[in-house]
Amino acid sequence: GQQLNQSPQSMFIQEGEDVSMNCTSSSIFNTWLWYKQDPGEGPVLLIALYKAGELTSNGRLTAQFGITRKDSFLNISASIPSDVGIYFCAGRTYNNNDMRFGAGTRLTVKP
Amino acid sequence: DTGVSQNPRHKITKRGQNVTFRCDPISEHNRLYWYRQTLGQGPEFLTYFQNEAQLEKSRLLSDRFSAERPKGSFSTLEIQRTEQGDSAMYLCASSRQPGGSYEQYFGPGTRLTVT
User: Which tops the pLDDT comparison, B76 or B60?
Assistant: First the structure.
């Protein structure tokens, strides 16, 4: 099962608003990844984080690797209709080579 | 570089039949991963290969499931005696290690429906 708690489960926002979602774990992670998935497609990598406290941007997206190494945040600024989709966090612990995924945050943007 | 490709995109089969899926990773990537995703959930790890060696298998990978990567390039995932609970999206991802990152790039998935 899932080892990551991702919240919120879903969000309904107005176009132009900022969005924030997060992921927490009971384990310390060495890597955090954020993905976006459209219906019927595979997840697309948005941002990768490797160091505690790291803040990385990709266009309107900004993600942070929490200082405790047990959480991560994704922010989307000035949302647009094409931001609609499901956002997943994924993390890797030090002694694992596979990634564990959260259950996703479903984002709906109203024009 | 055309990304990760998977075939078929959709498969409908009757319970008890065997099915096989194929994944072609990004050409320079030595690691290949298989995941299963059910509705409303994130991908769940099944197994991964480094080159042709299968290095880790999840407990989700029952003995009806087998994966191969004979030449360290493409991989196949076979499910024998399919059950309705096997209905899911099967995702393949690839990455480059060591020396690279742990960033995994996914294919479009194969959606399996067992009737």
Answer: B76
